[in-house]
Amino acid sequence: DVVMTQTPPSLSVAIGQxxxxxxxxxxSLVYSDGKTYLHWLLQSSGRSPKRLIYQVSNLDxxxxxxxxxxxxQKDFTLKISRVEAKDLGVYYCAQTxxxxxxxxxxxxxxxx
Amino acid sequence: QVQLKESGPGLxxxxxxxxxxxxxxxxxxTSYHVSWVxxxxxxxxEWMGVIWGDGSTAYNSALKSRLSxxxxxxxxxxxxxxxxxxxxxxxxxxCARDHDGYTxxxxxxxxxxxxxxxxx
Lengths: 112, 120
Description:
Chain A has no helices and 11 strands. Chain A is mainly β.
């Protein structure tokens, strides 16, 4: 199975600051169609996960452009600019290029 | 409006079989695939298995011997059955739909989850 490694495990941030979360995969996530199926999800406290970004950098509907995703092959980053209180929670990266789909261990974003 | 909602018993005894239902609305099960994902308390997400639009299934190899996913398209329901439950199977169980029915952009829509506790 593809192992997804997220760093850091937790982050303390002040409102208005910017943060970045790293996600590295044990194999390249480029699929045979040339696309990269790496996604980012946010799980707010007590809620179900919500996908924010798909295919590395595409924002899901309603997701503010303060969120951005970059990366290629095995190395990916989620950046959140001007963090707001509603951005707090656990962020997961997930890959669906290879079977079975796998998730990173999560990065908990907390208030400083 | 796409919606998924899980339901099932909150408490199951060890060695018994878990049965969960995911009731969907706003889309057809024949056009999209639905996965089951679970999350032990305080831990991360684990993909369990999927039922494709054509009704075929695929499972996580770690659970394959105990897991079965099926559906009733007339009732817009997807079912999960997992046998020989252990205390380690205590988790919140989610069903999740893909993005568009034909790409690998999974996990676009999620249910609210249902907590299952395995205890005698």
